[in-house]
Amino acid sequence: MDISDILDQFDSSNVDHLIPYDENLFNQVGNAGPNGEEDLRALTRAWVNERATTQLLEWPQDGLITRCRTRVKNQIDLVERLTGNMDPKKNFSLIIIQTDVERWKFMIRSYLRARLAKIQKFTLHYLSSPELQAHLSDDESAYAIKYQQTLHQHFLNSFLGKFPINLRNLNDTAGGITMIEAPDEEASIFARGLGSRDGGDIVHVTGRGRNEEGEIGIARGEVVVAKWSDVREYVKKGEMELV
């Protein structure tokens, strides 16, 4: 494989392998749950999106992570049942199952660690309002509160305790300057078009330049460099994904 082969993978004309916009992939409806392949695609997309931006994305509300953990547990149980079987054919199947389990486990762990790193870096920011705290799962919210309490107590014992009482807060906004560190929403990211919600192949994105706003059409499969704040809503709707 040479550089031309790599570039061909990002050629906007080579889009047959891309997964088009599918609302059921993000908002599962009806009684029938998604199958393993749909969950794997959704997990992969959530994992890549989470790692590609500095802002903490919303926790999947459709039970995706719970289902993925259940699938991993079921596969591990299957491996344990087949471990004692010495049939070479079944042992080969066992290797395939174990490899698949490790793939799922890697993505789940990497996804959770990426979120945990953002929570630890911007704890006060995500605890500063109910709207931001809604991005966290229940476990993440409990962890963030405990982490901030422990960190603040450590600072008090180390040096803040020697400061005047009015200077001990870590979320001070005196003078119109906030001490709360927030992720950079203007950071540049790479994003790929997936098609619009109405079934079209073009996503119309409004971007802010230095002097004025402008609108561009991003075709399905086209990769662009943009500000995160300009494409955030399109990623949330599933019309674009980060790469």
TrEMBL record:
Q: Which domain of life is it from?
A: Eukaryota
Q: Which Pfam family is an annotated match for this chain, by its short name?
A: SLD5_C
GO BP annotations of the record are:
DNA-templated DNA replication; double-strand break repair via break-induced replication
- What's in the GO CC field? GINS complex
GINS subunit domain residues are 85-158
Report the residue ranges that make up the DNA replication complex GINS protein SLD5 C-terminal domain in this protein: 189-243
Localization terms from the record: Nucleus
Has UniProt tagged this entry with the keyword Nucleus?
yes
> Chief location of this protein?
nucleus
Q: Which UniProt keywords apply?
A: DNA replication, Nucleus
What is the annotated role of this protein in its UniProt record? The GINS complex plays an essential role in the initiation of DNA replication.
Annotated family:
Belongs to the GINS4/SLD5 family.
Q: What is this protein called?
A: DNA replication complex GINS protein SLD5
Organism the protein comes from? Erysiphe neolycopersici
